[in-house]
């Protein structure tokens, strides 16, 4: 790049041309495009002498190409890459947490089995394009500029098929049903896309295949929810369990655990079962978050009602003093 002293000198001289008005403005003050093509020609077609007769495009190519040689040849196109394909898979909640491998059937373009993707009739082979010599690109000169474009003879592929495959008609691909096994890692989330490189549509005439993107949808579970790497679970408890405390047996994705509900637990409190959530990629595992909800019985028999009234009489009044003061104030 510009660390080369010769290239730096050329670049600085070119900047000086811009600053000194070597590129003229037209009668209306606009940029004169003829300067781009003739400003460095010096009237004699030999280029600006300060740059050794080089044209404008040659100067930029010399400074920014990172090397010398070749002149005007772009990167070869070759056979075109296949398109990417997207599919959608619905997973059970448990499979998304633990991970699963499932077969996925796709009806999409695949490599032609008759010609094996080269597009030629069996017994024949594609030949190199005589115009671009197999590069897929044709370089054209336009004054001081040169540019490359896809070869029209071979449509940028670089090869020509004289006798086309009767199955794919020279494209190298046919539509067919194929089944592939897809591994969904543990902890895959709803809306996540999994990329399978090279499993998309095949390229034209043996070009590289595109990629397959699998969009994951996860079914809702009857019990568990998910928050990041943690699983969530709501568990109802009675008033007596909340007041007196209890040992709570709850399910997990791989068995059951016992959690201690301490006496005086309010409704909505969350208990944590560590290591019972979703496995992380680094090997750690999330937790199971259990939220307890106090349920109120709708129907009480006489014995239960008497016991509850006795309980109410023996306990402190409800902590509503701040509300009672406001009620007395407004009568």
Which terms would index this structure?
single chain; 331 residues; HSP40/DNAj peptide-binding domain; 4-stranded mixed beta sheet; 3-stranded mixed beta sheet; 7 helices; elongated
Would you mind describing this structure in some detail?
The protein has 331 residues and is an alpha+beta fold. It has three domains: 5-64, no CATH class; 85-218, Ribbon (Chaperone, DNAj Protein, Chain A), CATH 2.10.230.10; 225-314, Sandwich (HSP40/DNAj peptide-binding domain), CATH 2.60.260. Helices cover 19% and strands 28% of the residues. The protein has a four-stranded mixed sheet. A three-stranded mixed sheet has the order 1-9-8. A hairpin with a 2-residue loop joins strand 10 and strand 11 (230-237). Helix 1 packs across helix 3. The longest helix is centred in the first third of the chain and has 16 residues, at 5-20. Belongs to the DnaJ family.
């Amino acid at each position: 790049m510009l660390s080369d002293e010769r290239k730096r000198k050329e670049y600085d001289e070119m900047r000086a041309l811009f600053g000194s008005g070597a590129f003229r403005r037209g009668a209306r003050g606009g940029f004169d495009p003829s300067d781009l093509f003739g400003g460095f020609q010096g009237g004699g077609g030999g280029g600006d002498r300060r740059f050794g007769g080089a044209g404008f495009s040659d100067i930029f190519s010399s400074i920014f190409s990172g090397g010398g040689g070749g002149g005007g040849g772009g990167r070869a196109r070759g056979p075109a890459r296949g398109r990417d394909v997207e599919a959608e898979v619905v997973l059970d909640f448990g499979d998304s947490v633990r991970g699963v491998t499932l077969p996925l059937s796709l009806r999409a373009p695949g490599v032609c089995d008759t010609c094996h993707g080269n597009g030629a009739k069996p017994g024949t082979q594609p030949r190199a394009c005589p115009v671009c010599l197999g590069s897929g690109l044709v370089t054209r000169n336009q004054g001081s500029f040169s540019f490359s474009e896809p070869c029209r003879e071979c449509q940028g592929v670089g090869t020509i098929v004289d006798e086309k495959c009767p199955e794919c008609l020279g494209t190298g691909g046919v539509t067919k049903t194929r089944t592939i096994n897809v591994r969904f890692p543990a902890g895959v989330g709803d809306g996540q896309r999994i990329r399978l490189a090279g499993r998309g549509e095949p390229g034209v005439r043996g070009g590289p295949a595109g990629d397959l993107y699998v969009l994951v949808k996860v079914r809702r579970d009857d019990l568990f929810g998910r928050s990041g790497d943690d699983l969530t679970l709501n568990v109802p408890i009675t008033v007596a369990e909340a007041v007196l405390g209890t040992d709570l047996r709850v399910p997990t994705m791989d068995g059951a655990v016992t959690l201690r509900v301490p006496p005086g637990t309010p409704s909505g409190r969350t208990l944590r079962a560590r290591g019972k959530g979703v496995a992380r990629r680094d090997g750690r595992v999330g937790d199971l978050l259990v939220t307890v909800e106090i349920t109120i019985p709708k129907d009480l028999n006489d014995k239960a009602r008497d016991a509850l009234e006795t309980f109410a009489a023996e306990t402190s009044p409800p902590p509503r003093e701040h509300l009672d003061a406001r009620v007395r104030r407004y009568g």
